[in-house]
Amino acid sequence: MKRRSFGSIEETWFTWAAKISAALFIAYFAGFGIWRFLSFQLELDWCKIANAVYQTSRGSFFGNHVNGLVGYSFFQEHISPLLFLYVPFFRLSPFLGNIVLITSQAIANGLAGWLLFLLGQRWFKSKLCALFCELFFLCNSRIQMATLHDYHMLTLLPFFLFLAFLGVEKKSRLYLWLGVLGGLAVREDAFLALLGVPLYIAWAKREWRPAILMLAVILAYEMLLFRFLFPMMRDGKPYLFFRHYHWLADSPGALIRRLLIEPHKVCYQVVTERHNAPLLLFLGQFFFLPLLSIPGWLTGLPAMSESLLSNVHQLTCYGYHYAVPPAAALTVATLLTLRVWSVRIRRRLSFKLFGPSLLILLTLYNFGFSFFRGAQPLSKFSRSPDVRLEKSVFYKIRAVRRLMRQIPPHAVCSLSVNLFGRYHAAPNVRLFRRIRGITDDVQYLLLDPNCRIRRYGFKVNSSILNSLVSKHGWQEVDRDCGVVLLRRGNIGNFPSRTSKSRRGGRISDSRRSGRACPAPANIF
Question: Is residue 453 within 8 Å of 482, Cβ to Cβ?
Answer without folding.
Answer: no
